[in-house]
Amino acid sequence: MPDKTTDDLATRLTAIAEGAGGSITPPIVQTSLFAFDSFDDFKARMDGSSDAPMYTRVQNPTVAAFEAMMADAEGGEAAVGFASGMGAISAALMAFLRPGDRVACVEHVYPDSYRFMERILRPFGIETTYHPLRAFEDDPDLLKGVKIAYLESPTSVVFQAMNLPKVAAQAKRHGAVTMIDNSWATPVFQRPIELGIDIVIHSASKYISGHSDTVAGVVIGSKDHIGRLRDLSLPLFGAKLAPFEAWLLIRGLRTLVPRMRQHRATADLFADRFAALPFVRRVNSPTANTVPGLTGRSGLMSVEFDESVNIPKLADALRFFRLGVSWGGFESLILPAQVGLAQAGEFNSMRKFGVPSTLVRLSLGLEDAEDLWADMSAALATSRT
Ligand SMILES: *Cc1c(COP(=O)(O)O)cnc(C)c1O
């Protein structure tokens, strides 16, 4: 193969992970186990002198090809795939935490991450405290005695962004491991490892897949950190990424950069036009240079209206925006906060962290931006009182 070394992410994502014999996609290696040619080969794999694939719960070539692409994209030494974003988040946390440890977490963290902290970690004697982003940047004692600083930037729902180099420096002083959920920005708009963060996590179900047909997760970091996950939480919890899902993710990564550019262009248009409307109180959508290292906005934003907008009416009047959870696919979606706030159960993070009932979250897809805006304008016109 010719040398395809380049600094450009879009070019690299098209060039790596080819198959054999001229196949420009890698094969789906759909097998549970890998047989060995000899007793000596088998024994060498078991005693650690060989790392040949043995069993798909821990190693698979299609999964490895996806992991190599993600490590490259995020600028990490290694990566490990999981069956879902929550599989990745829980495995990353459980590889480092022991009873008695403390976690410091951002407010407005992804709702199921909040539930993991409260419903799994807390009963095992691991306490999580929640803090505004500014406290991570400016409070010199916040991370004293903390094992893991668990970050999202921008956060879920209200999309506040934090100064990652500042937070990384605070964590290093106290010896805390920093983990960030980078699903919103993707490596196209933010590369946290280059900003000093230890571990990057993605719900690959979102932009990494990009096609709303996969649920998956991935963790990227140093060889040492990823080695811990490979040794402990990947094999022993077993939430492995499946070969076919990994293949779909490789397919998704090929177009990640142009898709993110398109999402950004539509989001720029929506953010500007929403901001000009008198009945819009707030547009939550951090853009390039809001914080160091953030180079663009993705298509996931939220808008806070005033009381003149009837949210249920707005949601039902939209034609191109479907009502649903998740985000990051080709299709546009709306998730009204009123729906999230109504979610049953004690551990409702939207109620805990306080989200206004006039907020809607939008995932702007790959449809024509003017079509989407015409849809939004028409729906707003019919839903205002
Ligand atoms: C969806 C999501 C997750 C969870 O990912 P799954 O793939 O659904 O398990 C984690 N973090 C964020 C920010 C998400 O939006």
UniProtKB/TrEMBL annotation:
InterPro entries xrefs: Cys/Met-Metab_PyrdxlP-dep_enz, PyrdxlP-dep_Trfase, PyrdxlP-dep_Trfase_major, PyrdxlP-dep_Trfase_small
Modified sites of kind N6-(pyridoxal phosphate)lysine: K206
Keywords: Aminotransferase, Pyridoxal phosphate, Transferase
Example GO biological process: transsulfuration
Reported cofactor(s): pyridoxal 5'-phosphate
Domain of life (superkingdom): Bacteria
One Gene Ontology term, aspect cellular component: cytoplasm
Molecular function GO labels: carbon-sulfur lyase activity; pyridoxal phosphate binding; transaminase activity
Family assignment from sequence similarity: Belongs to the trans-sulfuration enzymes family.
Name of the protein described by the UniProt record: Aminotransferase class I/II-fold pyridoxal phosphate-dependent enzyme
